[in-house]
Amino acid sequence: MTTVLAPLARLIRPRVCLFAVLASLTGYALARPQAEAGMALAATGAFFLAAGCSALNQVQERRQDALMRRTADRPLPAGQWTWPQALALAVSLLALSLGLLAQVGGLPLAGLWLAVLLIYNGLYTPLKRVTPLCILVGGLAGALPPVLGWMAAGGRILDYRIVLVAGVLYFWQVPHFGLFARMHRTDYQTAGFPVAALPARSGQSGQSGQFGRSRFPLFVWLLAYSAGLLQASALGLVSGPGQMVVTAMALGLALAWPLTRNRERLGFALVNASMLCFLATLALTALWPGA
Predict the structure, then answer these.
(1) What is the third-level CATH fold of 1-152?
(2) What are the tens digits of pLDDT across the range 164-200?
(3) SS3 per residue for the chain
(4) Highest mean pLDDT among 7-11, 195-199, 249-253
(5) What is the C-alpha separation between 138 and 173, in angstroms, rounded?
(6) Which of 8-12, 85-89, 173-177 has the lowest mean pLDDT?
(7) Model-level pTM?
(8) Within the chain, what is the greatest distance between any pair of CA atoms?
């Protein structure tokens, strides 16, 4: 059983899927703060959508994955799955997610499903081989899971609350991926991904690409992310102890960045932990306002 589940887990990347679930649950709770069947359907649909996009991404990048130490043991380059098998899995997962999301949110949610698929697999994945600017495109897909939950609960797409939450996630995406790219710079260079142009250390110029020449200022994006957290706190999306936690977290990230910018793993861990904490605090505030 383990020999079957382990390759499957590497194809769908459960941690990424669970993040999408948490983000969608947060969006749902903000729009309709009560547990109900629609919330479970939206969360399950988000999980299958993230899993399907991940499997399809690995079909698209199977040759590059074989060149990188970090991904060489994935099921396709390791020969545990064939690409048609992985493609069939991806299509099945995406079809399941579409059915669930269409059931709970109708045509608008089906349209958002299509947007995520087109942005992540149709634009971001091919652009990774062309330009470091792919980060800015991929961030759009990463910002949509809370919108998915919000729309599933009947929320208006232009409501300032969900626009702010999606914006905070978008600002988070760039330092998140930028730090990850620095941590695995050698792998990305080997596979020919231009994101390797990101400077590995402060003050080091990249070999090629716009971000490398301009020494892409990750700290500016981190400051924008911190400002978004502060705005969420100021507008009351988090309250009580949660408001103090989010405010302190935003200030801490802004102040800690100069100390962690040359320690990619520490910065990566702090940025990711802060986002998980933010989403959990948002959801808890929506479900239990007095907490």
Answers:
(1) Tetracycline Repressor; domain 2 (1.10.357)
(2) 999 999 999 988 888 888 888 889 989 888 875 554 4
(3) CHHHHHHHHHHHCHHHHHHHHHHHHHHHHHHCCCCCHHHHHHHHHHHHHHHHHHHHHHHHCHHHHHHCCCCCCCCCCCCCCCHHHHHHHHHHHHHHHHHHHHHHHHHHHHHHHHHHHHHHHHHHHHHCCCCCCHHHHHHHHHCCHHHHHHHHCCCCCCCHHHHHHHHHHHHHHHHHHHHHHHHCHHHHHHHCCHHHHCCCCCCCCCCCCHHHHCCCCHHHHHHHHHHHHHHHHHCCCCCCHHHHHHHHHHHHHHHHHHHHCCCHHHHHHHHHHHHHHHHHHHHHHHHCCCC
(4) 7-11
(5) 8
(6) 173-177
(7) 0.89
(8) 53
Burial bucket for residue 8 (CB in 10 Å: 0-12, 13-18, 19+): middle
In angstroms, the CA 52 to CA 166 distance is: 21
Structure token pair of residue 76? 């396709």
Give the whole-angstrom CA distance, residue 153 versus residue 51: 22
